[in-house]
Amino acid sequence: MPQTIAARCCVVGGGPAGLMAGFLLARAGVDVVVIEKHADFLRDFRGDTIHPSTLQLMFELGLLHDFLKLPHRKAFQISAQLGNRKFVVADFRRLPTLCKFVAFMPQWDFLDFIAGEAKKLPNFRLFMKTAASGLLEDQGRVVGVRAAGPEGEMEISADLVLAADGRTSRMREAAGLEVEDFGAPMDVLWLELRREASDPEETFGSIAPGRMVAMIERGAYWQIGFVIPKGGAQAIRSGPIGAFRDTIVDCLPFLADRVEDLRDWEDVSLLTVQVDRLKVWSRPGLLCIGDAAHAMSPVGGVGINLAIQDAVATANLIAEKLRTGSLRDEDLAAVQRRRELPARLTQRLQLFIQNRVIRSVLAADAPFEPPLALRLLDIFPVLRQIPARLIGLGVRPEHVNSSRG
Ligand SMILES: Cc1cc2nc3c(=O)[nH]c(=O)nc-3n(C[C@H](O)[C@H](O)[C@H](O)COP(=O)(O)OP(=O)(O)OC[C@H]3O[C@@H](n4cnc5c(N)ncnc54)[C@H](O)[C@@H]3O)c2cc1C
Asked: How far apart are CA 400 and CA 378, in angstroms?
């Protein structure tokens, strides 16, 4: 017999959307269970960006001071390297927020912090190593999830299942929700290389004909995202790792003394990029948020921000009704009404950059002029505030509802 558990809300997925939603709902007095299939948050395949809007939320929650004690690096600007020229793309220093920077912090530190705060609440439960395998349904209504954890099979019944299980969401598939796929011209090869004191200090992007590389500074090492044409991984990986090492050094000569640390293809992971969005984000008893509702491209490094903003909007719109047992199906649609526009506009911009810039950079075999947008940002620094707002705050930033249960 499976173990049975009951909660007002079962959140599937302990990523930025799920953990933040679980925390905020529990903070508002809702009895919440969050399940996360991994044993910890220590995974590489996440962005490391904590946006000014998220830092503002931390302030609103009274957690900013403690949060900023965690090791992080402040990026006041974001730049792109094209050949020998460096272009500042976004300047956060004039944002109307308390923290005028993006904090680069391993995402597991952020998630550990949120989980730690949430666990202080008596009505919050987090089950790690627990994977949802399907939905429990009763007369067309979702009434919980079926899951497997260290103790075996479980059935978690809930008034609401919050699907925050990311871009390969099993919950949205089980719910039969229709997905609109917008495609992406690229995938990412993801690898780590040692960092030396003499290396550049900042996280940055490097663009050259046929190549785009993102370098994320993670203290002792660089997390490197090597952008390749969609579906091109197999051809690259069927060649010798030595040829790939040479390509890396071609793009980033300062890595020549340690590129040998890449022993074989086992050291290089493939991250597939997808951009899609659900037509309808909910069904009676179930609501999708974050990448489960709208899978974001890595372009601009904004997916985490959107995921967190979805979580805040969800808590603001439904926590009280969920707590008092008065949640109606229409209330779930209100979350989509609030958050669809930011997701739609951001994805549209990502698709524009993917299709107009990234596709042509990857196809180029000769040096090219910097794109017009980069040149304009270079000539008119005031324009850098536009990408700063889009990256740092996003479209329609949310604020924590101060009321607590
Ligand atoms: C290569 C790449 C780089 C990126 N870099 C950035 C960046 O720098 N900055 C940025 O803002 N965004 C970035 N993004 C986008 C960002 O990763 C996502 O938009 C963001 O993580 C979405 O958060 P989420 O909580 O919705 O989903 P996720 O972060 O995917 O979290 C989902 C969670 O659900 C868990 N889960 C999945 N299935 C189950 C299940 N069945 N049962 C239980 N748990 C389950 C997963 O283990 C995971 O912990 C990047 C994306 C890609 C592809």
From this structure: 36
Express as a percent the part of the chain with pLDDT over 90: 78
Average pLDDT over residues 362-371: 85
If you measure from the C-alpha of residue 167 to the centroid of ligand 1, how many angstroms do you get, rounded to a whole number? 7
Structural domain spans, the chain: 1-43+107-180+275-356, 186-229+231-271
| pLDDT tens per residue across span 117-149 | 999 999 999 999 999 999 999 999 999 999 999
CA of 41, closest atom in ligand 1: 49
The yes/no answer on whether domain 186-229+231-271 falls in CATH 3.30.450 is no
Q: What is the mean pLDDT of the chain?
A: 93
| Residues 6+ positions from 284 with CB-CB distance below 8 Å | 140, 141, 142, 329, 332
pLDDT for 365: 85
Q: Give the pLDDT confidence of 183-193 residue by residue, as tens digits.
A: 999 999 999 99
Longest dimension (CA), the chain: 68
Confidence (pTM): 0.94
The atom number, within ligand 1, closest to the CA of 296 reads 19
Round to whole Å and give the CA distance between 249 and 360.
Answer: 22
Residue 37 CB–ligand 1 contact under 6 Å: yes
Please work out whether the CB of residue 13 comes within 6 Å of at least one atom of ligand 1. yes
Nearest CA to ligand 1 atom 31: 15
Confidence at residue 203, expressed as pLDDT on a 0 to 100 scale = 67
pLDDT at 182: 97
The fold adopted by the segment(s) 1-43+107-180+275-356 is FAD/NAD(P)-binding domain (3.50.50)
Listed residue (229, 288, 292, 214) closest to 48, CA to CA: 214
